[in-house]
Amino acid sequence: KLHSDLDKGVGTVKYTLSGDGAGTVFTIDETTGDIHAIRSLDREEKPFYTLRAQAVDVDTKKPLEPESEFIIKVQDINDNEPKFLDGPYVASVPEMSPVGAYVLQVKATDADDPTYGNSARVVYSILQGQPYFSIDPKTGVIRTALPNMDREVKEQYQVLIQAKDMGGQLGGLAGTTTVNITLTDVNDNPPRFPKSIFHLKVPESSHVGSAIGRIRAVDPDFGKNAEIEYNIVPGDGGNLFDITTDENTQEGVIKLKKPLDFETKKAYTFKVEASNLHLDHRFHSVGPFKDTATVKINVLDMDEPPVFSKPMYTMEVYEDTPVGTIIGAVTAQDLDAGSSSVRYFIDWKNDVDSYFTIDATEGTIATNELLDRESTAQYNFSIIASKVSNPLLTSKVNVIINVLDVNEFPPEISVPYETSVCENAKPGQVIQTVTAADKDLSPTGQRFSFRLSAEASNKPNFTVHDYRNNTAGIETRRNGYSRRQQELYFLPVVIEDSSYPVQSSTNTMTIRVCRCDSDGTILSCNVEAIFLPVGLSTGALIAILLCIAILLVIVVLYVALRRQKKKNTLMTSKEDIRDNVIHYDDEGGGEEDTQAFDIGALRNPKAIEDNKIRRDIKPDTLCFPRQRPPVEDNTDIRDFINQRLQENDVDPTAPPYDSLATYAYEGNGSVAESLSSIDSLTTEADQDYDYLNDWGPRFKILADMFGEEESYNPDKVT
């Protein structure tokens, strides 16, 4: 209520209100000055309002007093319950925790005024979840209330928490929330086998490394606390088996470490221990965290292939061993209860396997072809053994045969075969170190010896010094060498090996004399170097050689022209030079040597006699004379030559070297007829050479020569 001292109660004063909530939340009676709330107030929404009031004259509208300010506070009442703003809650605590172990702290808020009364004082309590958990009424901390809570018994707990204001008194408002608590696992349980004995049956044909069975120990723990390690306790049969842990199922996988053999042992017994990998020291007092079980394995008999006595066979044989020689044997047995016979054969893969054969019953290996170590030094093939009772059951073994060397090749000098020596070389100087190579292969290594041949030992030029390490040195024995006297030396070196039988060879080394400087560096080894000391330059030597070549060309041309001129010139001898024109390309007995050439090749085909066996060679077999068909008149000379060429090609009595056959027959096509008397059927006395005078000046000498010959013929009547 507002009141001014100037208000006399006669209605001359008017009251006004302004500020927070004026007209909306609060209103004032203008005459009496009473202030009223026109709607409900919420302290949690606005705890106080600031207002301004003034008294005004009704008539003049002027303030009677200065404006005054006042505050209206909203008094709190308990109209809000506590609330868990973060609920519901999720928490965890390890199993087997002691009483009072911290789990979680919850917090509830109350919107009421904490400074006024008990409206905002909250107290916590558990409505559901006892007797496992407890809560502090003031702080809201939740703790375990029972010892040794076991996750394997119960893992999840749901706790209902209540928060009540007014200090928990009657009439207070309350709020609730849920807390889900999980017991986390600890390794408080050892692994346990569900049974004490495990029986397994394993075929004897099981492969090494294969899994032959599984056993499992049960651990109620979870995660890494349930990880189990399996071990075989040393004892009977433990060395034949191994066990590992399957990470997904935590089972123990038993694997085979060595082959099983039913005929050797039919059953094995051993113990397996299961233990945890991650131990918790708080529970050591409970006992050992491991368990033991017995495993019995029965081996099942299987029909197995034959077994070779060795995993691999190595044999040796000398090269060139006669075919059929036995060089070794392989052996395989059937180890099953009902032993069966075994048959052997070679696993053919390529042609190399054909060098050997094997006896199908005895397993002996023999040579099938001659062996050459230089061609193939080692043979590698497989032998297959099969059971007679079951041929499908086979086993294979590898056989290596080494071919031993027989000393059959002599050693030879390794390249080079040619060396050089300086003209200014001193005695005892090594000009070349030589080594030897041998195609034979000695098991202990070859030893070579070097020496000069007997015919070269007495010559004072060079010697061979054997270093006895498979090398030798070529040494000089003279004080200087002259290229003008001798440019090349040939040194025969004898090399012997150390195998049996001893093989040796004589190798000729070519030693070239060269011009060198004072340090022994070779300057030149060609022909030019011989003339250099005379004082001629290289250009002068080239000019001299060029002049010599020109002179040789001139001489050759001159000789060729002379020979051509001789062919065209007629001889004036009384002998009939038209009969034979014989050219000898080899040395013989002159004109009297009628065995050197068959002049029948120059005869006219019409006048030639029957062909005789050639006299310049001795035929290997008797060959009958050929009958040459006569050449028809007016046959072209080309056909004649082709015919003679074909006859010589098919002639079995022809010499096995190139020869020149000269054909003097010029044909029948000339109008002047043949000039040769070979084809003439008349005697020389019947010839009339007067027609030569009609041929012109070119035949004048020939006409005079034959005309003169007629005048001296005493038998002709003039």
Q: Could you explain the architecture of this structure?
A:
With 718 residues, this protein is mainly beta. The chain is 8% helix and 31% strand. Strands 30, 32, 35, 36 and 37 form a five-stranded mixed β-sheet that branches.
Helix segment tally: 4
Broad structural category: mainly beta
Low-confidence spans: 528-534, 570-579, 601-628, 712-718
Biggest sheet, open or closed, and with what strands and sense?
5 strands, mixed
Alpha-carbon distance between the termini?
208 Å
Oligomer category: single chain
Could you estimate the helical fraction of the residues in percent?
A: under 10%
Global Rg = 68 Å
**What would the average pLDDT be, to the nearest integer?**
80
Topology, number of strands: 37
Shape: elongated
Kindly estimate the percentage of residues that lie in beta strands according to DSSP.
Answer: 25-35%
Keywords: Calcium, Cell adhesion, Cell membrane, Cleavage on pair of basic residues, Glycoprotein, Membrane, Metal-binding, Phosphoprotein, Repeat, Signal, Transmembrane, Transmembrane helix
Subcellular location: Cell membrane
Protein name: Cadherin-12
GO biological process, one term: cell migration
